[in-house]
Amino acid sequence: MVVSTVGARFEQALDKLKSTGVRMTPQRHAILSYLLDTISHPTADEIYRALEGRFPSMSVATVYNNLKVFIESGLVRELTYGDSSSRFDADMSEHYHAQCENCGKIVDFNYPKLHDVEHIAASETGFVVRGHRLEVYGLCRECASTIKH
Ligand SMILES: [Zn+2]
Ligand SMILES: [Zn+2]
């Protein structure tokens, strides 16, 4: 079930890449599959460590450059966190994130898109609003159960 969904999403991603003229290389294939297969919102470094055994000539910079290609093609979104490393998400559906302040884990949750926020922001600031990010933060289930209060 989950595998076939990932398979279908991978096929869609391949079509989209083809239509934008991006060449699919074995490394890109591996990075995209890895991202579609995980729910962990990994950093470039985590992706590199997961795949370096299969691609000895790959570097973190290569991973990052390939991620940029996917971002420009609209297949992956980058979640930036100030000066700490970005995390990457291949789930382009509308969803929000909860982040654990202790272990850094990011978990997806669904909530109806906050259209009002965008409309009010646009009318108060005069911005042409293209989107927004909303994150809740706190302690994940595991951390909440191990940390003494
Ligand atoms: Zn945690
Ligand atoms: Zn996500």
UniProtKB/TrEMBL annotation:
InterPro entries annotated for this entry?
FUR (IPR002481), Fur_C (IPR043135), WH-like_DNA-bd_sf (IPR036388), WH_DNA-bd_sf (IPR036390)
Family assignment from sequence similarity: Belongs to the Fur family.
Q: Where does Zn(2+) bind?
A: 100, 103, 140, 143
Superkingdom, according to UniProt? Bacteria
Q: Name one Pfam family in it.
A: FUR
Residues engaged in binding Fe cation: 132
Q: Name one GO cellular component term.
A: cytoplasm
Q: Which of UniProt's keywords are assigned here?
A: Cytoplasm, DNA-binding, Iron, Manganese, Metal-binding, Repressor, Transcription, Transcription regulation, Zinc
Protein name per the record = Transcriptional repressor
